[in-house]
Amino acid sequence: xxxxxxxxRVLAAAVVLVFAACAKVPEPHPTAxxxxxxxxxxxxxxxxxxxxxxxxxxxxxxxxxxxTDAIAAQHLPGAVLSVGHDGQVIxxxxxxxxxxAGEPGLDGSxxxxxxxxxDTIFDLASLTKVLGTAVAVMQSYEQGKVAFDDPxxxxxxxxxxxxxxxxAKVTVRMLLTHTSGEPGDVELKDPWGxxxxxxxxxxxxxxxxxxxxxxxxxxxxxxxxFILLGAMVEQLTGMTLDDYVQRNVFAPLGMTxxxxxxxxxxxxxxxxxxxxxxxxxxxxxxxxxxTWPTSLLPxxxxxxxxxxxxxEPEMNPDLDHLLRGTVHDTTARRMGGVAGHAxxxxxxxxxxxxxxxxxxxxxxxxxxxxxxRATLELMTTPQQPGHNDRQVRAANDATRAAVATRPxxxxxxxxxxxxxxxxxxxRGFGWDIDTGQSTPRGxxxxxxxxxxxGFTGTSLWIDPASDTYVVLLTNSxxxxxxxxxxxxxxxxxxxxxxxxxx
Length: 502
Description:
This is Serine hydrolase. Keywords: Hydrolase, Signal. InterPro entries: Beta-lactam-related, Beta-lactam/transpept-like, Diverse_Enzym_Activities. One of its GO terms (molecular function) is hydrolase activity. By secondary structure, the protein is an alpha+beta fold. The protein has a single domain (about 50-95, about 110-260, about 325-500), classed as Beta-lactamase (3-Layer(aba) Sandwich). Helix content is about 30%, strand content about 15%. The protein has twelve helices and 15 strands. The chain has helices spanning about 5-20, 60-70, 125-140, 170-175, 200-210, 225-235, 240-255, 330-335, 350-365, 375-380, 390-405, 485-500; strands at about 80-85, 90-100, 115, 120-125, 260, 265, 270-275, 275-280, 290-295, 345, 425, 430-435, 450-455, 460-465, 470-475. A six-stranded antiparallel beta sheet has the order 3-2-1-15-14-13, sandwiched between helices. The chain has a three-stranded antiparallel beta sheet with strand order 4-10-5. It has a two-stranded parallel ribbon with strand order 6-9. A hairpin with a 2-residue loop joins strand 7 (about 270-275) and strand 8. Helix 2 (about 60-70) runs antiparallel to helix 12 (about 485-500), helix 3 runs parallel beside helix 6 (about 225-235) and helix 9 crosses helix 10. The radius of gyration is 25 Å and the shape is globular.
């Protein structure tokens, strides 16, 4: 046999072997004994290759150092930062890990660390208020279904079933600007909603919680305000809040990775421990509209362990289990994962899509943002009771004077004081503008820019004047005993603004 003929036969045999290896292996016939459950799915996710981004300004090395130093100091496990400027994403990066080494993996057993990825899905916590609920209220305003200075009892009669003259003074404006007089949250000392979620009980408690100050008198941030607004949206639209915002806010913007994750609408293998959902081995399934696939669970950043009901451990089957894919906020979790104040999960990319569409609408550029420009201008400027057109200018003047005469020597990347003028708390409809919670603005972005934070470690700040947004998503509460994120958020904003030459 010639050498050439021999080589041709070897090559033909190799081709046959390759095709045999690629052929589909037939599934074995079922047997009497069930096979062992498959291992947890890999946490690495495959995402489409994005278009190339513009080169980031060199100053972003200082921004990254802030984040990596915070991770090294064990203030947070990881983060995803996304910055948009002049209509483009100019910087996006994942840092650290989304699950710490030794913490439970999907199957509940201690597992190695999982790297943070840009497509990680985060529990947005209170960013739900501005990305979903407040936009839904503003749409009802555009449709003539609600007026801001109407009493809440007009839309939710049970809010004042006893005809209390003080409760009669609470308006929709006061709910949106956290000046209603409501306390921070509903009563959570008893174990309602832990063995089985109870949305009706959560709404009832929000409707009947006594006021702790006079309506319109002071700014006090309260989840109750937005639980009530979520209930009002459902009353006005005839739809559940999650279905309404999915159809009328997230879908029009193309936010395909953004949704509430109510366990009742989970599709695919999972198990329930009281009001909390957990991963379960099993094959993927085709999910009908209106549900969400549990195949997302490996990409979701875990938050903290469920510590509710420790005094009555038998009342919470999920006690001490790590929350992953179940909303961390206790009230939202007890209400079934959907509430006006918390419950939305998303990625840094999708939050950036929201922010860019908002900036485009405000600038008069083509945009899919689901509100008119005039409505959005109303939403993002001071609207608290007693607001006036001079307040933003006065606050900026006060900040400039304070920076010049008494800068923040403890942390030069932050302003000397938030709010700039003591006692003058500026809030838009949902959005924070200048209050004690405005540290994510940093010291460069002006008052008049706006944003919001989430307890889990998330934040969004938007500056129309420079056409910039900063999305910083973390699951900082996954690190036990971690300090508040407020300073890091502001420091990142300041260094970002400087990197952009603002």
